[in-house]
Automatic annotation (TrEMBL):
Keywords associated with the record: Repeat, WD repeat
Protein name, as recorded: NBEL1 protein
Cellular-component GO terms for this entry: cytosol; membrane
Keyword Repeat: yes
Source domain of life: Eukaryota
Entry's Gene Ontology molecular function annotations: protein kinase binding
Gene3D superfamilies associated with the record: BEACH domain
Domain BEACH: 1-238
UniProt xrefs under Pfam families: Beach (PF02138)
Stored InterPro entries: BEACH_dom, BEACH_dom_sf, BEACH_Domain
GO biological process, one term: intracellular protein localization
Species annotation: Dicaeum eximium
Keyword Repeat in record: yes
Length: 238
């Protein structure tokens, strides 16, 4: 598979799906759901220019420190952590880049995930401000908060329906703006959910991502997952 990918015989999308499968990740287990990278950092421009490297996320860094400002906090957490019982090893992040709650968070508008989310929240929707309501806002929250380290799920590259509230669920309204949470708010450069998926998939297969994807793979599936390489890369998880 690796050789095929290097020779550009399979797409980045297919390669990531196969890596996830080999790592034991599967759509049948929310706790081991396939994980995909955030690949863009420009969610505000009117047009998305895939020839401009500045629109892409730095794939060599864990999502928690893509914003340089967070690196100091993350380093300090690792260095100052001491488990009195000596059971828990030092870590940079107390949550994970992929977990069941995160998958339900993204897929809240489609069943069976809606029902699973409601069960998780003891019989009702979580408060609107914590819902997945906007792609630009989700990215901004990641940049501002080193405790939020959710990567993406494969659906961001092929499944426009999850961005629409086709079932008309009452997801509440945001506290500050009183905005009703309905369809997911898209980046300015996307004119519809389909257009978002088309451009996002195109970004995944772009020259920039093809040249840098291996850096992210090292963090999630490769040698930077644990040991000294992980510590150095600020990539140690609880």
């Amino acid at each position: 598979v690796f050789q095929k990918w290097v020779n550009r015989e399979i797409s980045n999308f297919d390669y990531l799906i196969q890596l996830n499968t080999m790592a034991g990740r599967t759509y049948n287990d929310l706790a081991q759901y396939p994980v995909f990278p955030w690949i863009l950092r420009d969610y505000t421009s009117e047009e998305l220019d895939l020839n401009n490297p500045a629109v892409f996320r730095d794939l060599s860094k864990p999502i928690g420190v893509v914003n340089e400002k967070n690196a100091k906090t993350v380093k300090e957490r690792y260095e100052n952590f001491e488990d009195p019982l000596g059971m828990i090893d030092k870590f940079h992040y107390g949550t994970h880049y992929s977990n069941a709650a995160g998958v339900m968070h993204y897929l809240i508008r489609v069943e069976p995930f809606t029902t699973l989310h409601i069960q998780l929240q003891s019989g009702r929707f979580d408060c609107a401000d914590r819902q997945f309501h906007s792609i630009p806002a989700t990215w901004q929250a990641l940049m501002d908060n080193p405790n939020d380290v959710k990567e993406l799920i494969p659906e961001f590259f092929y499944f426009p329906e999850f961005l629409e509230n086709q079932n008309g669920f009452n997801l509440g309204q945001l506290q500050m703006s009183k905005e009703v949470v309905n369809d997911v708010v898209l980046p300015k450069w996307a004119h519809s959910p389909e257009d978002f998926i088309y451009k996002h998939r195109k970004a995944l297969e772009s020259e920039y991502v093809s040249a840098h994807l291996h850096e992210w793979i090292d963090l999630i599936f490769g040698y930077k997952q644990r040991g000294p390489a992980a510590v150095e890369a600020l990539n140690v998880f609880y």
